[in-house]
């Protein structure tokens, strides 16, 4: 149990580029013992990073050298993009043997991301008991608490003493590998409270568990979405939490380290979605990357053509006043940026639940005022630039009015579009960017060119 | 110790909009007992959310009703934007009295975000001992491990038995409120290992601590940046970690719940920076919000004017072929979006350390190929649209070539600009967006209009 090597005390933590280079060199020189010696002192998480850093050919050699270690310890740390590849290289038999040894939640974590065919093959190769356990986990919806939880936990009755509890834990083998609290349950296995380990440890043996437990613990329904689970862990500073079924019976426990991964995933998702990348990963192949990006760029092409159609309405005006063509990107670009600012703050405030029905009106009003004030300021600036550049006061007036209009529209679009998506249950991060910039492009071009046609000809 | 009310078992977790409405109604009716009754069952984190939801006037009334609770329990959960306001309303004396009761890390967390003047006032009002402790914490650089850590931890020698350790913890009052591992230190207080509580709890009394400890624990230097701390917690699935000074002596411990907050903060920072909002908060006042957004929009205005100057070089061409003015936003917009996609993936990969010196060349090559392939596909699409719309094959050819050029440039700019920032130690999220879109705008307009002037006239 003791002396499991983690990062050495004196060396910098993590995987250094020099270490990666040494491994690559050893692989190139076909020095397999050298590879093993370099990899063995590493933490499994760092080995996973190492696997990700290598070229496909080197990667296969490395995986062959440390097959056992990879299958059992490294697979859970490996990113989704490479997992399929590594699982296929290891072979379903070896993977199944390794998964049978893992905690059920880690095994599910590895399995759920595999493609359907590999998943079924691995499941068939598993021993019956482990297969049933994993299938029970996979029966919970994707991204739910049921998939995140571990099935082992410590549950005891409230009438036990601290001494009895400690003796029970010393004698029983069937306990989770890691746990931070003891659950107190009633005879029908419904949680009545929890005792943090540090409290149990500091209490004298004769004291009753019921007297030191936290009653009314925060419990997570098994169907709860992982994003919601992460919210509760963050909001209430949880280290672990019990998971209950529909009859409020304790069926598992979620640990904070798995929630930390969820928080990372969800933050990444929002970032990627706002940038129109959907899911993404730098370890994807060229074909996957091209395909995913193509789809979003296609949507963007549609909105760009829409903007061009608006411009084409004023083709004759542009022929006469070419300054309009020169200045029109400024109006659209400023609107697009102001809209993106408001939208990003809104999407984030929705994710962190700072924006609610209670304060929506107040926040919308504020954004409107901010848009108006910045619209005025930039209207003055841009009008001055236009007037000096093209020597026309009227042109300055046109761009000023168009700027104010577009900045106000940007503020409204930036907050109302994500709010609208959210109210209809659509993730506001997914499509807000394209809608907001379409609005600011169309309004920007229309206002500027329309005013130009009206006032300058 | 027991029965601290958290979220009730049967009710939905968190703060419901209906609950907020009831509080507002009670405040409006001046029913202060009603307010108190509604607030008292809530978790402090939810009370903080409630404070944030209210209008300034209502907020002050609520804070007055629950002054003691707010000062001691709620302040650490309150967002930065409102903390100054609430601290000023509570008065520095009450705040100081409350801070003296908090853990040092929580007190520092509250204090460090206050404006300089309030901070000094509160510090002066603190009892000498607490002031010195907090000032010692504030002496660590902002966002460092030293500010995140708590000063209390359990440290014992390796020659103690499990029984001695348990007895020590039962007898000593001077232990942290919450802890998940016991540190094993040598006589000069350097950490030799750690024992997770669940392991100590499951081991029989006569066993030596030295025999069950994890040697080579992951330790955090006090000056380490919190982003790096968060990386280590995530990478190695930590629940707590010891903090050491320059001589490798144990001086504190960081708990995962504080790291979860850091992960949220850092993810938010990247998101906001990429959108050009810098720091932001929906609870900021109109003046603050306007000012911060103005600065970024001003930078954007500069780049928009640059793009306009490029267009103005081809004013004569546009006058003759107005279709160029109509179509030019398509080339720029597609480039901008493709560049933003690549840039976002790059910024994220740098933050998660997936993009390293080892694989930079491979990933850059991949992005180049993706940009080229999508460039070809969209060149064909856009050429067809242009040819049909304006009936000119030559125009289609011009936009096709410009599109391919700009998509390749977008891919290169999207990855090389953030990489360059990162190599020079600048946060790639801060300014990458504006640089990338400037490049794609300028190149897009120049390539399209330049080719148009050359081939169509």
Outline of this structure?
With 457 residues, the first copy, chain A, is of the alpha/beta class.
Could you explain how this protein is built, in words?
The structure is a homodimer of 457-residue chains. The first copy, chain A, has 457 residues and is α/β, with parallel strands linked by helices. Chain A folds into 3 domains: 123 residues, Alpha Horseshoe (MgtE N-terminal fold), CATH 1.25.60; 120 residues, CBS-domain (Roll), CATH 3.10.580.10; 171 residues, Tetracycline Repressor, domain 2 (Orthogonal Bundle), CATH 1.10.357. Chain A contains 22 helices and 7 strands. In chain A, the strands form 2 sheets. Chain A has a 4-stranded mixed sheet with strand order 1-2-3-4. The first copy, chain A, has a 3-stranded mixed sheet with strand order 5-6-7. In chain A, helix 1 runs antiparallel to helix 2, helix 5 packs across helix 7 and helix 19 runs parallel beside helix 21. The N and C termini of chain A lie far apart (85 Å). The interface between A and B is large, with 141 and 141 residues.
Output the keywords.
6% strand, three-stranded mixed sheet, disordered N terminus, 67% helix, MgtE N-terminal fold, CBS-domain, 457 residues, Tetracycline Repressor, domain 2, alpha/beta, four-stranded mixed sheet, homodimer, 22 helices, 7 strands
């Amino acid at each position: 149990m003791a002396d499991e090597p983690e990062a050495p005390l004196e060396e910098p933590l993590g995987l250094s580029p020099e270490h990666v280079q040494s491994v690559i060199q050893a692989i190139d020189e076909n020095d397999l013992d050298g590879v093993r010696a370099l990899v063995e002192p590493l933490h499994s998480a760092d080995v996973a990073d190492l696997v990700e850093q290598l070229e496909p050919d080197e990667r296969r050699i490395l995986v062959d050298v440390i097959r056992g270690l990879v299958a059992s310890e490294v697979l859970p740390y490996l990113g989704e993009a490479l997992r399929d590849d590594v699982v296929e290289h290891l072979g379903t038999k070896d993977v199944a043997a390794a998964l049978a040894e893992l905690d059920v939640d880690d095994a599910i974590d590895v399995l759920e991301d595999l493609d359907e065919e590999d998943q079924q093959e691995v499941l068939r190769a598993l021993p019956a008991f482990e297969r049933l356990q994993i299938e029970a986990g996979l029966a919970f919806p994707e991204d739910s608490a049921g998939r995140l939880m571990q099935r082992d936990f410590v549950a005891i009755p409230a009438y036990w003493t601290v001494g009895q509890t400690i003796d029970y834990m010393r004698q029983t083998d069937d306990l989770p590998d890691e746990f931070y609290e003891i659950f107190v349950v009633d005879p029908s296995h419904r949680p009545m409270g929890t005792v943090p380990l540090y409290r149990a440890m500091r209490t004298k043996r004769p004291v009753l568990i019921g007297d030191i437990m936290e009653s009314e613990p925060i419990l997570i329904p098994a169907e709860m979405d992982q994003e919601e689970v992460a919210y509760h862990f963050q909001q209430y500073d949880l280290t672990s939490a019990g998971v209950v079924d529909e009859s409020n019976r304790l069926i598992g426990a979620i640990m904070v380290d798995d929630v930390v991964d969820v928080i990372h995933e969800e933050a990444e998702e929002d970032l990627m979605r706002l940038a129109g990348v959907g899911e993404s990963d730098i370890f994807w192949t060229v074909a996957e990357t091209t395909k995913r990006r193509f789809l979003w760029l296609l949507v963007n092409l549609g909105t760009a053509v829409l903007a061009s159609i608006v411009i084409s309405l004023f083709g004759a005006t542009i022929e006469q006043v070419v300054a309009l063509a020169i200045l029109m990107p400024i109006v659209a670009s400023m609107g697009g940026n102001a809209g993106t600012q408001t939208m990003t703050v809104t999407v984030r405030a929705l994710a962190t639940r700072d924006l609610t029905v209670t304060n929506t009106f107040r926040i919308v009003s504020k954004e409107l005022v901010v848009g108006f004030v910045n619209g005025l300021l930039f209207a003055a600036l841009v009008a001055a630039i236009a007037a000096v550049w093209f020597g026309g006061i009227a042109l300055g007036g046109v761009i000023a009015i168009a700027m104010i209009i577009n900045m106000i529209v940007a503020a409204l679009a930036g907050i109302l579009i994500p709010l609208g998506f959210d109210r209809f249950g659509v993730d506001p991060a997914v499509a807000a960017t394209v809608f907001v910039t379409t609005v600011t492009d169309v309004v920007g071009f229309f206002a500027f060119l329309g005013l130009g046609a009206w006032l300058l000809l």
